[in-house]
Amino acid sequence: MVRLEMLGSYEIIAILAIALLLLGPKKLPELARGVGKAIYEYRKASQGLFEEEEKPAKKDEREMLIEAATKMGIETEGRDIKEIAREVLEKVEGKDS
Q: Cβ(81)–Cβ(62) under 8 Å?
């Protein structure tokens, strides 16, 4: 696969001229739109995959923290996750308040 960053201006002009001759002036804009949409959808889909991979991990960490706090006897109902984390840390370090 050829990367566009590696092509010089003369190469790009030559490719566009050949495409114009082969496809004609009516089909070239349609092709460009199709390629643009395909690139957009590819980027959108690939970003979505990375976000989906991160979300379960964060949820698992939150659930594990709440489970650990419950086992330590720390009340978790209606509390912010940062408060729970702070109290768990204090209890682990031996700073019961």
A: yes
Secondary-structure percent of the chain, ordered helix, strand, coil, rounded to 5: 80, 0, 20
Element (H, E) at 78: none
Q: Is 76 helix (H, G, I), strand (E, B) or coil?
A: coil
Q: What is the mean pLDDT of the chain?
A: 80
Domain ranges of the chain: 29-93
CB–CB of 69/84 below 8 Å? yes
Residue 29 is encoded by which pair of tokens? 């804009």
Contact indicator for 65, 84 with CB cutoff of 8 Å: yes
Averaged pLDDT for residues 10-30: 85
Q: How many CA atoms lie within 13 A of 52 on its CB side?
A: 6
CB atoms within 10 A of CB 87: 19
